[in-house]
Amino acid sequence: AGADWLKGKKALVTAGGTQEPLDPVRYLGNRSSGRMGYAIAQALQEAGAETILVSAPTDLAVPAGVTCIQVQTALEMYDAVLTRFSEVDVVIKAAAVADYRPAVQAEQKIKKDGTSRTLELIPNPDILAELGRRKTSQVLVGFAAETENLLANAQDKMHRKNVNLLVANDVTKLGAGFGSLTNIVSFLFPDGRKIDFPQMSKHEVAQHLVREVANLLGV
Ligand code: PMT
């Protein structure tokens, strides 16, 4: 193993928070900045992998040498990821994907009329779960952003979504999760192994993750 341990491998990373339009000027979103996913894309590229970044809107610059596909909604991310799944060796799903979208997207800006309103939401497909069902030889890495029962919820996601590695972050901790420059994570594996990391930069988390991915790929 060395600087180009992922040479010849193809990787796909998702990043950022999807935006689900309500009308031409409004959307439902979340607080993901994209930093975690962009750091992973950079680390994969630096390790020699041909890297595709499927990104929801962010303010970040695409790391040098990385191919970026911009998307807005969960459905667009679903299409961008699923169409490329068969050609890649590893997928890392760091994006915060909206579980629901508005049932109706208004063609014109919604006007206020002083009354209260109810918004109907319909479920989005779970991209990671679909990859878990279709997986052949790919290494699949998921994230779990939890505000309670971190370990139990993360373990449940790992098994339900059939991933090879799950990165659990307690997003209630200061210096972890959405928007921060650092993260506090644990890596969980289906064989029961668990590695807990102290607070570190998202770039350092990305480097640890790339090392584990190389192990899982057997390189
Ligand atoms: O972007 P940053 O500001 O740097 O913040 C990083 C982060 C907190 C967003 C990141 O570390 C993280 O935890 N990303 C996953 C956030 C999330 O939506 O977690 P979840 O527990 O809701 O989803 C579990 C997994 O399923 C994730 O890998 C997610 O990408 C995937 N998923 C979820 C819903 C859905 N419809 N499709 C999916 O693929």
Automatic annotation (TrEMBL):
- Quote the record's binding site residues for CTP: 99, 109, 125-128, 143, 157, 161
Q: What is its EC number?
A: 4.1.1.36, 6.3.2.5
Q: Where is this region: Phosphopantothenate--cysteine ligase?
A: 11-219
Q: Which keywords has UniProt assigned to this entry?
A: Decarboxylase, Flavoprotein, FMN, Ligase, Lyase, Magnesium, Metal-binding, Multifunctional enzyme
* Pathway stated in the Swiss-Prot or TrEMBL entry: Cofactor biosynthesis; coenzyme A biosynthesis; CoA from (R)-pantothenate: step 3/5; Cofactor biosynthesis; coenzyme A biosynthesis; CoA from (R)-pantothenate: step 2/5
Task: Note whether Cell inner membrane occurs among the keywords.
Answer: no
Its required cofactor(s), as named, are:
Mg(2+); FMN
Residue ranges of domain DNA/pantothenate metabolism flavoprotein C-terminal in the record: 6-215
Q: What does this protein do?
A: Catalyzes two steps in the biosynthesis of coenzyme A. In the first step cysteine is conjugated to 4'-phosphopantothenate to form 4-phosphopantothenoylcysteine, in the latter compound is decarboxylated to form 4'-phosphopantotheine.
Recorded protein name is: Coenzyme A biosynthesis bifunctional protein CoaBC
Q: Which source organism does the UniProt entry give? A: Desulfosporosinus metallidurans
Q: Please give the first and last residues shown and the length of the full protein.
A: 180 to 398 of 398
